[in-house]
């Protein structure tokens, strides 16, 4: 089974997982990326069973609207019942690296506001130790070089993601060559560098549930944190 099929399988499983939560006033948080795109397409079949969505990127908002699914500004809703999004890596504690699609800041905000965070990923994203995937960091443009030098002091190898501007008007540094033994501490340390908006480690707010697509089927893994 190829990776794309696994992404579709977990997206479909996520819609089934959240269906019992869907009521007239339910707000669903929707992530960004190719797996999240499948989720949006399958969620369209449930349109009308819930109030609407908050999107973690302009791209996802556009896709939701193209299906006729309402999209709200986060400030216009009281809370988010469940947030569904992909990841670039997950460890067994369901701590994640996200931001491959440059949407990490809005993803982190939506995750923070959500009662439950359901991560959907194919098995290639499962790792024992985070860090093979370069860690994205969103940075205020004028601070780019300063932040890069500070990240080098932390042991990373930052690379400017050229040609990419985030939905918030900022730039991305991808930090290579870090084996992240202490995700919570590193998330904090990078976020404390002046000029960093946020980084793509989701350790302080990991996923609550992981739907992992494998050749043997979709596995449901609950957070032990
Ligand atoms: C976007 C993300 C995505 O969730 C992550 O990059 C996974 O993407 P995909 O589902 O395309 O593999 O964090 O910022």
What topology does this entry show?
Blueprint: H1 3-18, E1 27-30, H2 34-43, E2 52-55, H3 58-66, E3 80-85, E4 89-90, E5 96-97, H4 104-113, E6 114-122, E7 135-139, H5 144-153, E8 157-160, E9 171-176, H6 183-191, E10 196-199, E11 201-202, E12 209-214, E13 217-222
Parallel strand pairs: 1-2, 1-3, 3-6, 6-12
Antiparallel strand pairs: 4-5, 5-11, 7-9, 7-10, 8-9, 12-13
The protein binds ribulose-5-phosphate (5RP).
Brief summary:
The protein is α/β, with parallel strands linked by helices. The protein is 28% helix and 27% strand. The strands form 3 sheets. Strands 2-1-3-6-12-13 form a 6-stranded mixed beta sheet.
Characterize the structure shown.
Homodimer. Pfam families: Rib_5-P_isom_A. Its EC number is 5.3.1.6. This protein has 225 residues and is an alpha/beta fold. It folds into 2 domains: 3-127 and 204-222, Rossmann fold (3-Layer(aba) Sandwich), CATH 3.40.50.1360; 135-198, Alpha-Beta Plaits (2-Layer Sandwich). Helix content is 28%, strand content 27%. Strands 2-1-3-6-12-13 form a 6-stranded mixed beta sheet. A 4-stranded antiparallel beta sheet has the order 8-9-7-10. A 3-stranded antiparallel beta sheet has the order 4-5-11, with helices on one face. β4 and β5 (96-97) form a beta hairpin. The longest helix is centred in the N-terminal third of the chain and has 16 residues, at 3-18. The mean pLDDT is 97. The site of ribulose-5-phosphate has 17 residues, from α2 and α4.
